[in-house]
């Protein structure tokens, strides 16, 4: 069983995924990490990005300057679309190969764009980490030290809260402390083990 875990920026996806992995030994595949792998130096995707945006999109060591790229693509919807069309199939391939290596009772696919990218088609259930938008905004501005306007642009590009909730089988409400989030994760884990024990 593959379970998708999604939520907007700053919702606490990583904290939830870390609990599944650390407390319950669940194999976690992080789509954000895969999105970094496909643009590493020497990978074809990085060459395409440089061809499109120029050498200025690279850091001194030849790796991708992700914040410079983010500024460009979130300012121009057609550039974001071009980038997604290039990267999504590559990321999907990386995700599938990692999921196939899982040997825990179920695997977790963590992705901020689970719904938008169609990655939810790889999953049999979807967990949404839900948090009020004001809290999401404040957490992200503080964590990433970025302007509020940039966070708002990223939030606009992600599925709206209602759209995510429409796809949810399970919801983790993350408006309290870490202990409250962990308790919800532990309860879900128990439930998933019970589901797996049921005859198909």
TrEMBL record:
Belongs to the CoaE family. Catalyzes the phosphorylation of the 3'-hydroxyl group of dephosphocoenzyme A to form coenzyme A. The keyword Cytoplasm applies. GO terms for cellular component: cytoplasm. ATP binds at residues 10-15. This is Dephospho-CoA kinase. It catalyses: 3'-dephospho-CoA + ATP = ADP + CoA + H(+). Coiled coil: none annotated. Pfam families: CoaE (PF01121). It is an enzyme of class 2 (transferase). Keywords: ATP-binding, Coenzyme A biosynthesis, Cytoplasm, Kinase, Nucleotide-binding, Transferase. Its EC number is 2.7.1.24. Its main location: cytoplasm. GO terms for molecular function: ATP binding; dephospho-CoA kinase activity. GO terms for biological process: coenzyme A biosynthetic process. Pathway: Cofactor biosynthesis; coenzyme A biosynthesis; CoA from (R)-pantothenate: step 5/5. InterPro entries: Depp_CoAkinase, P-loop_NTPase. It is found in: Cytoplasm.
């Amino acid at each position: 069983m593959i379970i998708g875990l999604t939520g907007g920026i700053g919702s606490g996806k990583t904290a939830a995924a870390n609990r599944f992995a650390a407390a319950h030994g669940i194999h976690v595949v992080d789509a954000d990490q895969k999105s970094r792998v496909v643009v590493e130096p020497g990978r074809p995707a990085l060459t395409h990005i440089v061809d499109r945006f120029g050498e200025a999109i690279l850091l001194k060591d030849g790796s991708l300057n992700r914040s410079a790229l983010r500024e460009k693509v979130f300012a121009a919807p057609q550039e974001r679309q071009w980038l997604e069309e290039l990267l999504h199939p590559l990321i999907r391939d990386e995700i599938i190969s990692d999921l196939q290596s899982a040997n825990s009772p179920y695997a977790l696919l963590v992705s901020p764009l689970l719904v938008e990218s169609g990655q939810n088609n790889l999953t049999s259930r979807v967990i949404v980490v839900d948090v009020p938008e004001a809290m999401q905004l404040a957490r992200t501005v503080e964590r990433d030290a970025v302007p509020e306007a940039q966070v708002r642009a990223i939030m606009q590009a992600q599925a709206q809260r209602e759209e995510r909730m429409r796809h949810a089988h399970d919801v983790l409400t993350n408006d309290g402390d870490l202990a409250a989030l962990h308790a919800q994760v532990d309860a879900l884990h128990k439930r998933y083990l019970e589901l797996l024990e049921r005859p198909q």
